[in-house]
Amino acid sequence: MSAHRSYNELTSEGVWSGFPPLRLSVTLPSEVAAGLDVVSERLSKLDFNGFFATKLSNSALHLIRAKGKLLRPALVLLGSHSTGGINELSVQAATAVEVIHTASLIHDDLIDRDAERRGVLTVHTVFGDQTALLAGDLLISKAIELSAGCGEEAIKELAKAAMEMAEGESRDYEVQETGARVTVDEYLEIVSLKTASLIGASAAIGGIVAGSGREMASQLKEYGRNLGIAFQIRDDYLNVLGVSADGKTTGNDLRNNRPNIVGALANEFGRERALILTKEMNQGYVTRAKKVVDQLPGSNSLLLGYAELMRIDESN
Prior knowledge:
This protein has one domain: Farnesyl Diphosphate Synthase, CATH 1.10.600. 68% of the residues lie in helices and 3% in strands. The protein contains 13 helices and four strands. It has a two-stranded antiparallel sheet. The protein has a two-stranded antiparallel ribbon with strand order 3-4. A hairpin with a 2-residue loop joins strand 3 (116-117) and strand 4.
């Protein structure tokens, strides 16, 4: 394996799939790239107490087999790399994070009645609502098992993020159900819970399992939270433009009254101005993440470069 591999090279190899072309090629140290390879392999070989090729196990693995971006596992590994170095617990935690993320996608798709994710039909569309619900539960249980050896602090971070994700999804659905108009502040609160919580926890957990102190883990969490908001704003922007960021049904946020930053801004400023302001907000959160990195000890050019991946491409 070469000493360094780029994010784009990993994308072309299928470790990350479904992401539109990115502005920046981030060079990953060999240990980070190797860690992602191991995470990808372990995800492909997940087992559930010996149950194999059952309807439930196949439904739980459906989105995993379609392959995601591994954004959150990458942040776990980057969090470890920037502190004490990547170890076996880093890989275990990264795998657990992706498993619980996949569970949340299955449940989100079921609630939102989305038909496509990662370029394939959603789990409830293929296997039915009841099985999709159980598949998410199964993956949450698996994530608990995978994280068991990572220590109390890491497990607490993962559990807190999962609870915040559930609260965020509940608020998201309430907006859809009631047809309420969401303010920018309300939008930011929802995405901070639904999206940014696990992204922030991923970076923090990576530091924790590598032996970082509480202060550095907290800084990594703040870095990840800002990245998570920037990522969601970028996703919303692409959705309004009709561009898929994850091989999923797109262009339907505003139609279904889902919390979307462009829609929240358009309520006050109109669509064209809202698109401009959305770009500015996205850039602002990327900048916030980079400012947190500047406060970390040592050279953290990799974290700075990774933050740039969340920026809206100026060509859009």
